[in-house]
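Action item from last week, closing it out:
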Amino acid sequence: MKMLEYLSAPEAAKKWGISERRVQKLCEENRIPGVAKFSRLWLIPKDAEKAADKRKRQENRK
């Protein structure tokens, strides 16, 4: 059985170069697969990819 390794929201924020609050919001919106909430702590799989930022406008739009 494989044991999963997790990061906290502050650790993921530092790894991805975004704010801790933004990581929490991505977790709340289920945009990061495999997250779990333990009390007030978000647990993010260590190998999770940063979710695409839907707030940014794509260059292909007219």
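Closing note: Helices lie at 9-16, 20-28.
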